[in-house]
Automatic annotation (TrEMBL):
InterPro entries: CHCH, NDUFA8. Keywords: Disulfide bond, Electron transport, Mitochondrion, Repeat, Respiratory chain, Transport. This is CHCH domain-containing protein. It is found in: Mitochondrion.
Amino acid sequence: MATKVVDAAGEPIPTSSVLMSAAKHIEIKCKPENVEFLKCKKKDPNPEKCLDKGRQATRCALGVLKDLYQRCKDPMEAYVGCMYYHTNEFDLCRKEQQAFEKACPLD
């Protein structure tokens, strides 16, 4: 695989293929954080005002990636690798997506 999900320390590397592969999980698990961040941005477009909400959303997404990797390492690596190879084209990675979602079902 030409891309890695985590670094040597086990921390998630949020590349586009990793984020696209985990998007459904992040959407479900981090919805409150993302909604609060978007509300903040809508209320005040000054980026400084929403840094804390942005950090919370980022922390949540990274936590989801780390959890998924720990629970579903092999299917996640296969799915991420396929997405990387096929430039994030979901249609070309359905087999890997199904295996990943079977191993780590959406809650």
